Amino acid sequence: xxxxxxxxxxxxxxxxxxxxxxxxxxxxxxxxxxxxxxxxxxxxxxxxxxxxxxxxxxxxxxxxxxxxxxxxxxxxxxxxxxxxxxxxxxxxxxxxxxxxxxxxxxxxxxxxxx
Length: 114
Description:
This is DUF427 domain-containing protein. The protein is an all-beta fold. Helices cover about 0% and strands about 55% of the residues. It has strands at about 5-10, 15-20, 20-25, 30-35, 40-45, 55-60, 65-75, 80-85, 100-105, 110-114.
């Protein structure tokens, strides 16, 4: 059984940073909650500096969301492989995330409310 997914507007302004650079800032971000997993912030692609992202060959499938495509973040010192993902054609139940990107957070990538 698939966990219930809820999508709502993320309150406030959100940023994503990697390699010392701000990749994007948005007041139109979405928060996706799925079961007991930590919520994930999705940024509109229009609010992300896509010049820092390269398409990846990596793909995955989620039965609740559809097929995900991945992007690597290119910084001055290194490339963060498959650090962001997007559902280009999500299933209808989560269609609000179409055209949005999410990021894996770690010591090199930060997603923060500002």
